[in-house]
Structure formats: structure tokens, C-alpha cells
């Protein structure tokens, strides 16, 4: 099964679209991020503070041939919520009336902006969100049953032709609302799941691992597929940014491990409030490298290595006591045969499109992977070899 969907989040922080047609041809969906969840609790709301317009974005993408006879433009969706934005969802989800108001306003927004659908970024229903230290998970268990009810109302408001997706956690420890009991109802309302197979190491961790490694990504996909999400509705996530983590200065022994996984980090979040202590971070390929990280990052770019078992690009900076984790273009390419193709997933997505400017190297690797998958399913690869259902055919089988 080819990855038919290629979804790019387009963010207000990096609202950039590449000028090269070849990098746009495989993109099927653009998701504009974000609208705050709280505005959909306002019954009289009639304005939608997007950083751009649906039509202006749609106009920048080529028409795409989908079946050889009809052409279609890119689908433009609007993402609601995002990391740390939970209050609006929580207010809406508590009551039937709240869910109806929220869903009705989502429907109004889609109609008035001309969007093709919405992406629900209530990323951690049930707990483990940004406020998990201040608001314990046991006070959020009600959200586990309320989340699918909110999605049902949104589906009812939008009808069967508009798209609904959801950004969902990539770490099993965060999948509190995504269980064998709840996922069938959730899946009934969604067209696809954007599994966040990145940030798989974050400031809550205490030892080094790949933030977007192959094996951890496979584990995430299996968790959803095993609990009832079809492979066709599954999208694999890619990160167009770099992550770094400070490790304990006495952990130099990790330099002799290959790869240096499981090495102790410094304390990265406040144990009482969960606040970021500034010992880890991320930046996109379009961002300026922070001055204090420049020397270490230069060493990382020169010395990058790849873990062939766990599947991830990395660099252990012994001099600076920093663990670097990111996807190189080559690492992105490896994920297509090992995950997307092998597991028969319905699509891929990336956070985010403009984050890869100005070189667009990671976007190129991603779209090349999508294009290669399509060629395999169409039966012939770039070298002229012919495949049937992913199996290379011998000359006498043609």
C-alpha cells in the first residue's frame, strides 16, 4: 500500500512554501496551525484569526492528478489547539451542550474559511499534557470517555464529506485516552490519525534515546494498529527540526557506547511544576542556532552518526556534554521501506513545511520517499523494475 497522503503542517512561526514545483507535487494536504481551542466555546464567534487564508495557501499548490482522469488541488485543513492548549477542549468536552457549541462553531469556521476540514490537536486527553505536574492525571480521567464524544459531535457538525484528523501521542506512556475500548469510537469519527512519532525523547526523560527513531516509531504505530486503528488511517510523523539534551558531565563513559543510548541526562524539568529548566530544546532548519549551542552543533553536523538498530541519526558531544538527535535526509529515506512500506501505512506528515527552509533537504527526502512508494504500487520503480504488490517480478513473470 502506498502512502497516498503527504501532509504538511504550515505554521505561523515559519509560513514558508518552497518555490520548487517538484517539492510540491506530492503534497496532498496542508494543515494550518493553529487556531486556539477556546474560541470555539464562544457561541457568537464569527472571526477566525488564522495567520493566512485557506484560498491563498491553496493557490500556491499545483493541481494534482489523482486517478489519471480527474485533477484536484491540495486539501487545506485547519489545526485547532496544539501543545499546551487544553482549556478550550476541556471546557467543551465536559458537557453535552459544551460539545455541541464547540462542534457547531468548528462547522461555522470550516464553512466561512473554505477549509476542507480540521485537525484536532488536543494532544494529551486524559493526562500527561504540559500541565501534568500542576493538574494530576487522576483529575482528567473523565476526558478519556469525553474525547470520543467531542469528536462525534464535530463529525456530526461537519458531515461526511469534510475531513477530520487528530494529532495523537507517539509514546505509549501518553496514550491514556487511546485504548482498545476507546479507539474504535475515535476512529469512527476520524479520517486519519497523525501519530507524533517525534519528541519520543523529551524533557521528562532521564536517559538518552532517539527522539524520532525507527524502532520507537514502529512501537508507536503498532500500539495504535493493535488497538483497532486501521493502517490505512495511520500517518507516520516526521520532524523537520533538531533536538538537544544536556547530559551529566560525569557521563563521558557514554562516548564508548555505540550508540550512546541510555546515558543519564541532567534534570530537565522542575519536579514540582513540570516547568522547563532550559536543559533541553529544539530548533528548526530555518531557525538561527542559539549562540551557546553553535560550537556543539557544528561538531554534531560534522560527526553525525546513524544507529542501524534503533534507527536514528545522532551525535554525542563529549566536549559539551550534549546529546543531539534528529532526522537527516538519509534517515528519513530509511523510514519508508522499514515503516511506511513494510507496515502498509496510509500516509505521512511533517511538522512543519516552512521549518525546512531554505534548503528543503528534508522535505525533498520525504517527497522522494512518497514518490518512490507510489511508483512501487503503480508497478514500476525508477530503474524500470516491475513490482506487483511490492514484490519484484522476474523477467519471465512480466
Automatic annotation (TrEMBL):
Source organism superkingdom: Eukaryota
Domain GH18: 4-373
Name of the protein this chain belongs to: chitinase
Gene3D superfamilies in alphabetical order: Glycosidases (3.20.20.80)
InterPro entries, per database record: Chitinase_II/V-like_cat, GH, Glyco_hydro18_cat, Glycosyl_Hydrlase_18
GO biological process, one term: chitin catabolic process
GO function terms (MF aspect): chitin binding; endochitinase activity
EC code: 3.2.1.14
PROSITE patterns in alphabetical order: GH18_2
Pfam families referenced in this protein's UniProt entry, alphabetically: Glyco_hydro_18
Source organism of this protein record: Polytolypa hystricis (strain UAMH7299)
Gene Ontology terms: cellular component: extracellular region
Amino acid at each position: 500500500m502506498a502512502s497516498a497522503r503527504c501532509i504538511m503542517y504550515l505554521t505561523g512561526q515559519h509560513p514558508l512554501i518552497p518555490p520548487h514545483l517538484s517539492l510540491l507535487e506530492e503534497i496532498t494536504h496542508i494543515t494550518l496551525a493553529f487556531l486556539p481551542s477556546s474560541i470555539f466555546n464562544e457561541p457568537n464567534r464569527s472571526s477566525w484569526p488564522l495567520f493566512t487564508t485557506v484560498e491563498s495557501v491553496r493557490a500556491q499548490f499545483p493541481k494534482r492528478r489523482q486517478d489519471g482522469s480527474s485533477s484536484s488541488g491540495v486539501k487545506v485543513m485547519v489545526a485547532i489547539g496544539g501543545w499546551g492548549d487544553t482549556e478550550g477542549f476541556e471546557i467543551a468536552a465536559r458537557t453535552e451542550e459544551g460539545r455541541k457549541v464547540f462542534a457547531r462553531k468548528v462547522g461555522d469556521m470550516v464553512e466561512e474559511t473554505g477549509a476542507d476540514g480540521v485537525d484536532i490537536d488536543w494532544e494529551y486527553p486524559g493526562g500527561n499534557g504540559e500541565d501534568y505536574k500542576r493538574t494530576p492525571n487522576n483529575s482528567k480521567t473523565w476526558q478519556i470517555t469525553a474525547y470520543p464524544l467531542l469528536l462525534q459531535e464535530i463529525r456530526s457538525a461537519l458531515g461526511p464529506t469534510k475531513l477530520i484528523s487528530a494529532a495523537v501521542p507517539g509514546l505509549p506512556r501518553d496514550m491514556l485516552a487511546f485504548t482498545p475500548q476507546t479507539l474504535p469510537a475515535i476512529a469512527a469519527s476520524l479520517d486519519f490519525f497523525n501519530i507524533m512519532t517525534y519528541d519520543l525523547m523529551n524533557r521528562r526523560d532521564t536517559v538518552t534515546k532517539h527522539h524520532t527513531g525507527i524502532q520507537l516509531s514502529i512501537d508507536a504505530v503498532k500500539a495504535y494498529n493493535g488497538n483497532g486503528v486501521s493502517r490505512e488511517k495511520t500517518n507516520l510523523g516526521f520532524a523537520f527540526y533538531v533536538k538537544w539534551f544536556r547530559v551529566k558531565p560525569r557521563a563521558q563513559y557514554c562516548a564508548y557506547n555505540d550508540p550512546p543510548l541510555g546515558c543519564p541526562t541532567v534534570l530537565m524539568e522542575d519536579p514540582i511544576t513540570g516547568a522547563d529548566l532550559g536543559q533541553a530544546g529544539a530548533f528548526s532548519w530555518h531557525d538561527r542556532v542559539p549562540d551557546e549551542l553553535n560550537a556543539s552543533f557544528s561538531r554534531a553536523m560534522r560527526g553525525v552518526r546513524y544507529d542501524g538498530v534503533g534507527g536514528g541519526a545522532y551525535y554525542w558531544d563529549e566536549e559539551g556534554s550534549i546529546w543531539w538527535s534528529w532526522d537527516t535526509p538519509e534517515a528519513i529515506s530509511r523510514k519508508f521501506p522499514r515503516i511506511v512500506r513494510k507496515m502498509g501505512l496510509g500516509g505521512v506528515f511533517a511538522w512543519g513545511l516552512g521549518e525546512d527552509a531554505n534548503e528543503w533537504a528534508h522535505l525533498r527526502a520525504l517527497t522522494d520517499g512518497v514518490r518512490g512508494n507510489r511508483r512501487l504500487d503503480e508497478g514500476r520503480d525508477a530503474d524500470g523494475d516491475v513490482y506487483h504488490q511490492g514484490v519484484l517480478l522476474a523477467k519471465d513473470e512480466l
